[in-house]
Design goal:
By secondary structure, this protein is an alpha+beta fold. It has two domains: about 120 residues, 2-Layer Sandwich (Nonspecific Lipid-transfer Protein, Chain A), CATH 3.30.1050; about 150 residues, 2-Layer Sandwich (Nonspecific Lipid-transfer Protein, Chain A). Strand 2 and strand 3 form a beta hairpin.
C-alpha cells in the first residue's frame, strides 16, 4: 500500500497549476525586458545590402532638392540582386507623391511602375557613385530594364547633375567603403556609420567645433568587427574611412590597402587622437539618444582611449537628432 503521507495535496496541485500561467507571463515579461529596443534594432538595415544604405541616403537627399523632384514625375521599381538571387525591392515614386518618396518594397497599391530595373547590388552602387558608366553597364548586360528606358536615362542625368554640383557630399565620403568592400551582415553599425556621415555633411557647424581624428571600434559579442576613422578639423574637408573589416583575411586587407594607396585620392590614415570602443547594439542606442555619451562611459558601455579631454568635442557628433530616423 502506498504511504498516505506521500499523496499529493489536491490544493497544492491547484495552487501550482494556477501559478504556471503567472510564471509563463513572468518569463514573457522578462524576455520583453531583455530587448526593450528590439523594434528599433529591427528597423535598421543589417542584411549586408549596400542598396539599403544608399537608398536611405538618397531618400534624405531628395527631401532637400524639391526642384529636381519636380523635373521627373515617374515611378521606378528597383529589383536588387545579390549573387544573382533576388535580394530586395525598392520603389522611387515622384509621381503620386509630390515631394517624392523612396521606400522598400514594390509600388504601393494603385501605383504602377513606369520603369523596372533589375540590377546587382554592387553594380548599382558603382553606377550611383560614378564608378560604372550606366550605358557601358547596359551594354555589358549588368542590368535589365522593363518599361521606358528613356526615363531611366533622365533619372541618371538628374542624379549626376546633383553630383556635379556638389550636392551629394555624403556619397564622396562613403564611396570607398561602398565600392571597395562588402558590408557586414548582422552589423547595425554599418548603417550608423552612414548616419554619422550624414551628420557631418548636413551639420557643418560640427566641423568648426570638432578638431580631432576619432577612431570608432565596433564589437559584436566582445569580438572586434570593424574600425572607422572620422577626421574633422576646422577649415579642412572631413574624412571618413574604414580601418579594419573582420570579413577580410589578412591577405585581402593587404591587397585592399595597396589598391587604395595606388589611388590618387588615397592617403595614409592619420593617427587617432581619441578611440571609442563600443558594442554594435550600444552604438545604436547612443546614436539615437537613448544613452548619452557620458552615461555610456560611466556604465562601461563606451570605452575611451587617448585624449580624454576630446570627449566633449566628440559628444557633439554623437548627440544630435537622428537624420535617418525613419528607417
Amino acid at each position: 500500500m502506498s504511504d498516505p503521507s506521500q499523496k499529493m495535496n489536491p490544493m497544492s496541485l491547484a495552487s501550482e497549476d494556477s501559478q504556471q500561467p503567472e510564471q509563463q507571463q513572468g518569463i514573457v515579461r522578462q524576455q520583453q525586458q531583455q530587448h526593450p529596443h528590439q523594434a528599433l534594432f529591427d528597423s535598421i538595415p543589417q542584411n549586408g545590402l549596400k542598396c539599403d544604405i544608399l537608398f536611405l541616403v538618397i531618400k534624405n537627399r531628395i527631401k532637400e532638392e524639391p526642384e529636381y523632384v519636380k523635373r521627373l514625375r515617374v515611378v521606378f521599381q528597383f529589383n536588387m540582386l545579390k549573387n544573382n538571387q533576388p535580394a530586395a525591392t525598392w520603389t522611387c515614386d515622384t509621381k503620386s507623391c509630390i515631394e517624392g518618396d523612396i521606400y522598400k518594397g514594390p509600388p504601393k497599391p494603385g501605383c504602377k511602375a513606369d520603369c523596372i530595373l533589375t540590377v546587382d547590388d554592387d553594380d548599382w552602387v558603382k553606377i550611383m557613385v560614378g564608378k560604372l558608366n550606366p550605358q557601358r553597364a547596359f551594354m555589358m548586360s549588368k542590368f535589365k530594364i522593363k518599361g521606358n528606358i528613356m526615363l531611366l536615362q533622365k533619372l541618371y542625368a538628374l542624379w549626376f547633375e546633383l553630383r556635379r554640383k556638389g550636392k551629394t557630399p555624403e556619397i564622396d565620403l562613403i564611396q570607398e567603403i561602398m565600392v571597395e568592400e562588402q558590408l557586414m551582415p548582422g552589423l547595425k553599425s554599418e548603417a550608423m556609420a552612414i548616419e554619422i556621415v550624414q551628420r557631418i555633411v548636413k551639420m557643418p557647424h560640427l566641423a568648426e567645433t570638432i578638431d580631432a581624428n576619432i577612431q570608432l571600434n565596433i564589437l559584436k559579442d566582445t569580438k572586434l568587427m570593424t574600425k572607422y576613422l572620422i577626421g574633422m578639423h576646422p577649415g579642412k574637408k572631413p574624412e571618413f574611412r574604414r580601418l579594419y573589416n573582420a570579413l577580410l583575411s589578412n591577405e585581402e586587407r593587404k591587397q585592399l590597402s595597396q589598391k587604395l594607396q595606388r589611388s590618387t585620392e588615397a592617403t595614409v590614415a592619420p593617427k587617432a587622437d581619441i578611440i571609442f570602443t563600443i558594442e554594435d547594439d550600444d552604438l545604436v542606442l547612443v546614436i539615437y539618444g537613448i544613452y548619452k555619451v557620458n552615461t555610456a562611459i560611466e556604465t562601461g558601455r563606451l570605452k575611451v582611449e587617448g585624449k580624454f579631454e576630446l570627449v566633449d568635442q566628440a559628444r557633439a557628433l554623437f548627440e544630435q537628432p537622428p537624420i535617418m530616423a525613419n528607417l
